Amino acid sequence: MTDAKTAIDETVKANTVVLFMKGTKDMPQCGFSSRVAGVLNYMGVDYADVNVLADDEIRQGIKDYSDWPTIPQLYVKGEFIGGCDIVTEMTLSGELDTLFDSNEVVYSKEAADKIREANG
Asked: What is the pTM of this model?
């Protein structure tokens, strides 16, 4: 599991935005992963995706790394942000915009506003 922890740590630190998910950003394999990837894709965020289904050690390792029991898990600038519910709430409240702005993550503010309008 040490190799998995090292790989996870390197991935989190090497990428501004990382989503550990079931499936890929182009082909999510669970509803929760699909929702978070969908938000990031729609907002035009450039992010790394890690398919935890491809490696059991990474799948368990990310849960241990974050001390968070579920997947997907979103990281921004090395910081664990949360899973599907937290990302959804942050998107709807505008907190995700603030987080992206403060970390210089490029995204479409127009798309973020459209998500809020559609769910408001």
From this structure: 0.95
